[in-house]
Amino acid sequence: MVFNLSWFVHFLLYYICWIACIYYAAHEDPFKGPIITLCLFSVQLLWQLIHQKPCLKPLYFALGLMVLGGITDTIWLRSGFIYFTANPFGSSASPLWMLCLWLSFGFYVTVNTEYWLHYYTIWGLLSLIFIPMAYWLGALPGAMVLQQGSIFYLYLGITWLFLMPSCLYFYNKYK
Questions:
Q1: Diameter of the chain by CA atoms?
Q2: Domain count, the chain
Q3: What are the beta bridge partners of residue 146?
Q4: For residue 40, what are the domain limits?
Q5: CA-based nearest residue to 6, from 65, 62, 67, 50
Q6: How far from chain centre, in Å, is Cα 162?
Q7: pTM above 0.85, yes or no
Q8: Mean pLDDT score of the chain
Q9: Coil, strand or helix at 92
């Protein structure tokens, strides 16, 4: 029962974080989404500790994915492919709310899909489809603006087609 409840808790908290970050970014508030995300992320870490489940290695993966996601988003931003609203850094760097989303996503992936983390081809294909879809869903309410239109989704998908399996490979190799 704890496994199913753990899965549900992480699933629910991740999506609350995602919605909060997108909602507040679309409403030009750069800090409420990240604050909510970091609070809920702390609950997830505490949940893992209380239930004696892996915490440190998923945290390292999440931090690494946050850095990698932040770098790629900054490249997209500086290349003129995307504009993030509610970004206190302007066009210099990825906004805090995107960094928090990558952090939350990385932790969610490692704690909720542990069995599937060795299926790199599946993760690549899922990333090809669902990461561009997440950006599209973020652009709908205005949390970001795609400057180059739909070609950006292709670049984004192809980038993460390779990056996500690579990240998971290193996670599995060094965990």
A1: 48
A2: 1
A3: 82
A4: 2-174
A5: 50
A6: 16
A7: yes
A8: 94
A9: coil
The pLDDT tens digits of the residues spanning 17-60 come to 999 999 999 999 999 999 999 999 999 999 999 999 999 999 99
| Closest-CA residue to 79 (of 134, 152, 137) | 152
The pair of three-digit structure tokens given for residue 117, joined into one six-digit string: 């983390």
CA atoms 144, 104, 115, 117: torsion sign: positive
**How many residues make up the chain in this entry?**
175
Taking each helix axis from N to C end, the angle separating 2-26 and 32-50, rounded to the nearest 10 degrees, works out to 170
What is the distance between the alpha carbons of residues 62 and 42, in angstroms, rounded to a whole number? 13
E strand intervals along 55-175: 82-84, 144-146
Instruction: Express each pLDDT in 84-112 by its tens digit.
Output: 999 999 989 999 999 999 999 999 999 99
